[in-house]
Amino acid sequence: MNKRRRLTGVVISDKMDKTVVVRVSRTFRHPLYKKVVHTHKKYKAHDELGARVGDQVRIVESRPISKTKHWAVEAIVRRARGNEDIIAQQEEQEAEA
Description:
1 helix
């Protein structure tokens, strides 16, 4: 395995061509006040796998692809509910063509 960073998050937008926006959440305890803090960050990732909104994906660090895109979708960990029907329809259309 290489030393590239890998993060897991949820796709919140897939409107761009071959690009998805992934929201990565993290939870940690505040060092002074000991309160549990929830934060999140959005990353733009190159997507060749066809991830949809709501899918949980694993992204990996990559070379700069554009001004704001430095990550790539490595795998789709879990599909969102309701996306299975859309994916099945697309696969049927591709098989007919």
